[in-house]
Amino acid sequence: MARLQIDGGCHCGKIGYEANVDPANVIICHCTDCQANSGAPYRANVLVKAENFKLRGQPSTYVKTADSGNRRLLAFCSDCGSALYSTTVEDPRIYNVRLGSVNQRAQLTPRAQGFCRSAMPWAMDIRNIPQLPDPPAASSSPRRAARGRG
């Protein structure tokens, strides 16, 4: 599969990025840390090599220690709170860019899932959960309309 040039950033626009990614490197993480930090049942990421990642702006960071003892740096916007990426604290070589912050996210289908032992049992198949209709758009901006209520 061909590489894909992506861009994205936080909700308020203070922080942005560009990256060149391999679409095969999209994963879902069900670990309890990702659940707690995202406020969601899982987190989707696209892995990006450091040399293929260009950041604009200065995110705030938080360092967490995983059950394994590994220290991970989590980056987010201090103004709007958007999660942007995680990486190692020492010598970051790979960035786990949060798929929700990527403008081309619809083109990046997850190829693997990790930490499935921590997954919410219902999160593995949501096809039978009833779908609510989309609310009417409040503005003419397609990006704003796609953001939802959250």
Structural class: mainly beta
Helix content: under 10%
Please report the number of helical segments. Answer: 2
Q: Class in CATH?
A: Mainly Beta
Tell me the total number of β-strands.
Answer: 10
The best one-word shape is globular
Strand order of the largest sheet: 6-7-8-9-4-3-10
CATH architectural group: Beta Complex
What's the assembly state of these chains? single chain
Unreliable spans are: none
Please tell me how large the radius of gyration is.
16 Å
CATH overall fold name: Metal Binding Protein, Guanine Nucleotide Exchange Factor, Chain A
- Largest β-sheet summary: 7 strands, mixed
- Kindly estimate the percentage of residues that lie in beta strands according to DSSP: 35-45%
Summarize the structure.
By secondary structure, this protein is mostly beta strands.
General description of the model:
By secondary structure, this protein is mainly beta. It has one domain: Metal Binding Protein, Guanine Nucleotide Exchange Factor, Chain A, CATH 2.170.150. It contains 2 helices and 10 strands, in the order βββαβββββββα. Strands 6-7-8-9-4-3-10 form a 7-stranded mixed sheet. Strands 1-2-5 form a 3-stranded antiparallel sheet, with no helix packed on it. Strand 7 and strand 8 form a beta hairpin. It starts with a strand and ends with a helix. The model has no long low-confidence stretch (mean pLDDT 91).
